[in-house]
Every structure is written in C-alpha cells, then in structure tokens.
Amino acid sequence: MSNPDPSIPASTAADLDRQDALAALREEFVGAETSLVYLDGNSLGRPLRRTAASMARFVEQEWGGRLIRGWDEGWFDLPLTLGDEIGRITLGAAPGQTWVGDSTTVTLYKLIRAAVDAQLPDGRDEIVIDTDNFPTDRYVVEGIARERGLTVRWLDVTTHGGVEVEPLRELLTERTAVVVLSQVAYRSAWLADVERITAAAHDVGALVLWDLCHSAGSVPIELDAHGVDLAVGCTYKYLNGGPGSPAFGYVAARHQSRLAQPIQGWMGHADPFAMGPGYTPAEGARRFISGTPPVLGMLALRDMLSLVDGVGIDAVRAKSVALTQLAIEVTDERLAPFGVEVASPRDADRRGGHVTLRHPRMREVVAALWRRDVIPDYRDPHGLRIGLSPLSTSFAEVEAGFEAIAEELGRQASSTTTA
C-alpha cells in the first residue's frame, strides 16, 4: 500500500495554534524550541525552565544556607502543604486530605492494605479490580490478597474500552472490601464515571480507591464532591514533577481515624521527635506518611502546580480535548488507509488526555520514530500511544508527529510488499 496524499490543509494546525489561548505557555518548557516531537507527556512531562532556577536557588539558599534548620522552616510540613495545593488545584479536595511522598506503588499498597484491614472485621474479604488496570495496581492487589487471605474478583474489560457501571455492579456484594480502579485507563484513555461508580460501590458498603496517574493535571477531578474514599496518583506525568518524583495520596477526612496504615514510620508519628518506644499515629493526613519526605523531588512539582493554578484545570482540559480530537481526525484522514484503528473513545466525555492507535506494525513504527526524534510510546497489543500534555504540546507538533507516523507506516507497507 502506498502512502496517501496528505489530506489535511497545511494551515489547520497553525490556525489552531493561533487560536489557542494557552499557546504561549509552551515556551515555559525546556526543549519546546527544538525540532524534537514529543508525544509522550503522559509518561514523563517536559521540565519547566523556571525549575532549573528554583532548584539552584534551593541548593544555594535553603539547603546550602539553612541546612538542617530547613526542616523547621518548611520541609517537615511540605508533604502536607504541597498535598493541599495538589488537592485544591487538581483534585477538588479540601485541605487536610492529601499528602505527597513515597512512590505510587508504595502508596497504593498502604491505602489498599489499610482499606481491607478496616473492612475485614465486617466479613468483607474481596477486592474488585479490572483486568486491564495498570500492572502495578493489579500486582499490589494480588500481593495484598495473598497476605490477608482475600479473594480478588476480576472485572473483565477490553483493552480498547474501560470500566462501566453496570458490569461492575454485578461483581459487587456485601463481601466487597475495596474496589481499585483507574479514572483514565492507561492503554485506551477510557475516562471512567467516578461519581456513578463510587456511588455503586457505596451502595454495597465497599470503599473505592481511584488511581489518578493518567488524569491528575489533565482531567478535572472532584474527589470531595463525588464522595471518593481513597486516591493515589503520580506527579511525573501531567504534573511534570520529573523522573521519580513522589506520588500523592488522598484519604477522605471521614476515614482518616478509621484507617491504620501498614508502614508505620517516624514521620507519621503523633510526636516524631519524642523518639518514643511505641507508635502513636498522628492526627489527620500525616498518619499516612512513613519516612523522611523527598524534598528535592517536590521542587519541580511545585513549579508546575503554580502554572496550572494560573491557567485553571478547566482550560487545561479544553486544550487536551482539542489536541486529542485533532489526533483522531488526523488518524482518520491520514492513517486509516494503512489500516490504523483508533483504540480510544471517540467521545471526548469518555476520553482522557491520550489516544492509542492500533496497527500490527506499531512496535516497529515506534522504534523507527524514536530514531528520528519523534517520541510516542508503545503499548501491547499493537498500540502506539499519543500522550498530549496540554501546556507543553502544540497543534503543529501533533501534526508533525502524524506526518512522521504516516511516513513510517508507508515504509513498513512498502517493505512488506517488496518482501
């Protein structure tokens, strides 16, 4: 099959960029001025230019100048103060319920384990999770089930779809302890109905933990308004915290005194510096902190939150929808003739911030694209995933990326025909 003639007017992306009220913010990010096409912002966001200065200032003034006094001057409370900012700006969460620290995996373990331990005395010995949830979520659930003698109930979903209310409701019983789901599916970008699903779980007395890794900073979230019990999310995707930046956790205030986190560390003690012989949990969200917080790992996140706060999450979402819609339209016009299928929801209300495209040769296509500085990522089965970080991605960048994808598909088709 030959490469089809381009069918998108050359001015389309340029016009969209001119009309984009957020276009100027792209210049805030390192590397945006280069020719590299970055379509993987939902795996690792670009760094902000201001972060280099803020990190240097921290090293010279706070760390180098104040040394250990920094703990009394803000570092000790940073997991909670920064957590409140994440809650206010991106999660729809009132103060005192969100904190920053540990990895996503560790935070998932702590909160799922705390939830099932609280529910077990009532005869609730089952965890519900979907078959296409992110591997870490599934692995953590399986490990906790082995530790505590629980049963895992699996909700079957397709790799191009996601969790819906009615099929989930059929699995929920009086034995369900906790339901573990992702708001945005990492493969398909399916955007789950948090409000209705949470209500369905509550109807049978179960708790719900939402993984927000692929939604925080891209999709408006209303944890308090929707009655969410628990949530976990990473900060290196749409929140641009950098590689290995710490996760955040959320526990609704109504559950905090009931849940006992399983990794008891000194920073979660009611009086950490008493160095006492026994563990007494702190009040509020601090009880879910374990060890010394990664202060350096929070600096870039703080900068990005400030930028999102100035723009507003609704504006971020509007740009995200426009970017993903362009990706789908270009796929239909340029890539469908090669047999490419859109493996993400076409309805923007059901779609998160990325789009997955499916074709049998996508693994080879992604490898070839990386060699030419066009960076999407690959997810089985046969999926090229386009991650569009709204504040750092331009419409022209999307168009350039799709031109390269079409070229590589043409080469793959030609090599197959020749062979």
From TrEMBL:
Pathway where it operates: Amino-acid degradation; L-kynurenine degradation; L-alanine and anthranilate from L-kynurenine: step 1/1; Cofactor biosynthesis; NAD(+) biosynthesis; quinolinate from L-kynurenine: step 2/3
Pfam family, one: Cys_Met_Meta_PP
One of the record's GO molecular function terms: pyridoxal phosphate binding
SUPFAM superfamilies: PLP-dependent transferases (SSF53383)
InterPro entries noted in UniProt: Cys/Met-Metab_PyrdxlP-dep_enz, Kynureninase, PyrdxlP-dep_Trfase, PyrdxlP-dep_Trfase_major, PyrdxlP-dep_Trfase_small
GO cellular component annotations of the record: cytoplasm
Reactions mediated catalytically: L-kynurenine + H2O = anthranilate + L-alanine + H(+); 3-hydroxy-L-kynurenine + H2O = 3-hydroxyanthranilate + L-alanine + H(+)
Keywords: Hydrolase, Pyridine nucleotide biosynthesis, Pyridoxal phosphate
GO BP, one annotated term: L-kynurenine catabolic process
Family per similarity comment: Belongs to the kynureninase family.
Function per UniProt: Catalyzes the cleavage of L-kynurenine (L-Kyn) and L-3-hydroxykynurenine (L-3OHKyn) into anthranilic acid (AA) and 3-hydroxyanthranilic acid (3-OHAA), respectively.
Quaternary context: Homodimer.
Name of the protein described by the UniProt record: Kynureninase
